[in-house]
Amino acid sequence: MTRDPHRFVLRRTAEREWVILDDSYPPADDRHRVARISETLDGDVTVEWMQSVPLPTRHISPRAVVQDLRIWVGRRPSERPVPIPHRPPVHS
After folding, report:
1. Residue 83: which residues within 8 A CB-CB, separation 6 or more?
2. CB distance 43 to 59 below 8 Å
3. Contact in structure between 19 and 37 (CB atoms under 8 Å)
4. Residues 67, 72, 73, 78: what is their CA dihedral angle, to the nearest 10 degrees?
5. Is residue 14 in a domain?
6. Residue 32 lies in a domain
7. Strands 8-14 and 45-49, bridge-based pairing
8. pLDDT at residue number 87
9. Mean pLDDT over the full length of the chain
10. Global confidence as pTM
């Protein structure tokens, strides 16, 4: 994938379904379609990645999926990932 994070387009395909398209590839290219997104009746959003993308398959919204994808693509290879705070286990 090229590094331009603004090339991704979220397009609704049905009432509760979307696709993410990569405009850096022509529509006939298999790499043009990046993901399929589905929303359940209770609001859960699941993602089926069609490309090799190390991002979660569950998100809070279709826009959040595109945002995370843009952040991931826009990160320079030398950048370290955002650290996750570690806390000791909760004792009951």
Report:
1. none
2. no
3. yes
4. 150
5. yes
6. yes
7. unpaired
8. 74
9. 86
10. 0.75
Cα–Cα nearest to 35, from 24, 53, 48: 48
- Measured in Å, how far apart are the chain's first and last C-alpha atoms? 47
- Residue 14: name the closest of 51, 39, 41 by CA: 39
Which residue range is the domain that position 49 belongs to?
5-74
* Residue indicated by tokens 């991704």: 8
Enter the tokens of residue 23: 């405009």
Look at the chain and report how many structural domains it folds into. Answer: 1
Alpha-helical runs (H) found in 1-92: 62-74
Whether residue 57 contacts residue 69, with contact meaning beta carbons closer than 8 Å, is answered with no
**CA-CA-CA-CA torsion for 46, 30, 54, 59, nearest 10 degrees?**
-20
Q: Each residue of 37-81: pLDDT tens digit?
A: 999 888 889 999 998 889 999 999 999 999 999 888 887 665 566
